[in-house]
Amino acid sequence: xxxxxxxxxxxxxxxxxxxxxxxxxxxxxxxxxxxxxxxxxxxxxxxxxxxxxxxxxxxxxxxxxxxxxxxxxxxxxxxxxxxxxxxxxxxxxxxxxxxxxxxxxxxxxxxxxxxxxxxxxxxxxxxxxxxxxxxxxxxxxxxxxxxxxxxxxxxxxxxxxxxxxxxxxxxxxxxxxxxxxxxxxxxxxxxxxxxxxxxxxxxxxxxxxxxxxxxxxxxxxxxxxxxxxxxxxxxxxxxxxxxxxxxxxxxxxxxxxxxxxxxxxxxxxxxxxxxxxxxxxxxxxxxxxxxxxxxxxxxxxxxxxxxxxxxxxxxxxxxxxxxxxxxxxxxxxxxxxxxxxxxxxxxxxxxxxxxxxxxxxxxx
Length: 364
Description:
Blueprint: E1 18-19, H1 25-31, H2 37-40, E2 47-53, H3 64-76, E3 79-85, H4 87-96, E4 105-108, H5 112-118, E5 122-123, E6 145-149, E7 152-157, E8 180-181, H6 189-202, H7 205-215, H8 229-235, E9 240-244, H9 245-252, E10 258-261, E11 271-272, E12 277-282, H10 288-298, H11 301-309, E13 314-315, H12 325-334, E14 338-339, H13 344-362
Parallel strand pairs: 1-3, 2-3, 2-4, 8-9, 11-14
Antiparallel strand pairs: 4-12, 5-12, 6-12, 6-13, 7-9, 7-10
Helix pairs in contact: 4-5, 6-7, 7-13
C-alpha cells in the first residue's frame, strides 16, 4: 500500500505508465480545464489524473499502484498521471482548483474523503464491484468507496528496542526524547489518526490532549508526510513513529529493523481502527469516463487479489479472500487487537476545532 515499500505519504515518482508529482501543476493545467467540451466530459484525451495520499506506490516501481496502473494502461490505452501528497494536502489542492478542475480521481484517508465530499469535490459513481464493499467502507450515495482497506498503527526500531512498547504511557519515558515523531494532524491522514486514536483510548478530547501535551516533550516535531518516518525509524534516527499497517508492512520488506505495534492505554487492550484508502470521482473531472474506468479497474477482482500480495494491505471487497503469505502474516499481526469504529461524521464536522485544540495543547 506495495503500499509503499519505501515511503508512504509523500513519494513523488514517475514511471512509463504513471507520471507526476506536485511539481506538475503547470502540466496538469494544460490537461484539465482547458480541454474541449468533449474532453471535459471524459471523451477526448487518453489520460486519467489521480490525486492520492501516499502509500500505495513504491519507489522501486513494484507497489500496488504501479502494478495496477500499468495493467490498466496496457488494457485500456489510458495513461495514468499521478500526483501524491498528504491526505489533507490533496483535498486542499483540489479545493483550490475547483474553478479549474484538474484531477479525475482522488484517493485519500478518512476523515479527508468525507471532507472532500463535504466541500463538493465529488460526484456520485458506484464502481463495478462496489456492491461487494462493506457499507461502512463506502458512501451510501456513491460519492466514494474504499479500494484498499488498512489499519492505523505505530512502528518501532526492532534493533534498538528488544520489544515493542505496549502503552501510550511508556512513550513519555525520557529514552524517547528526540527519538519519537508523529505526522501532523490535519495535514497527514495518519497524523490525524493519532489524534483520533488518542481521543478513543483516553476517553475524550481533553484527556487525549493532556496526554499529547506531555508527549510533546519527546516529539521531534511536525511532519507533513508519514512515509518519511519509517525510514528514519529503520535507521535508528527514531525509535517510534506513527504509520499504518499497509504502508509499514510493505516498507518492512526492505527495512529489516521496522516493527509494527498498536498502543494501548495503561491497563487496556491494544486498539486500532480502519483507515482505508477511499476513492471518489471528482466533480466536473476533465476525463470523467476515464476516471470511472479506473475506479472499476481498481475494484476488479484481479486488482483486489493483488492488494495483500503486492500492496501489503487488505482487499476492500469482502468476496476476495487472499491466502498468500502476506495475507497470513497480516492476519497474525492483527490477532488480539481490538478494532473500534470512529464517529467519522463527528470528526469531519469538528476536525478543524480538534486540530486547533491539538495545536494549542502542544504549542505546534
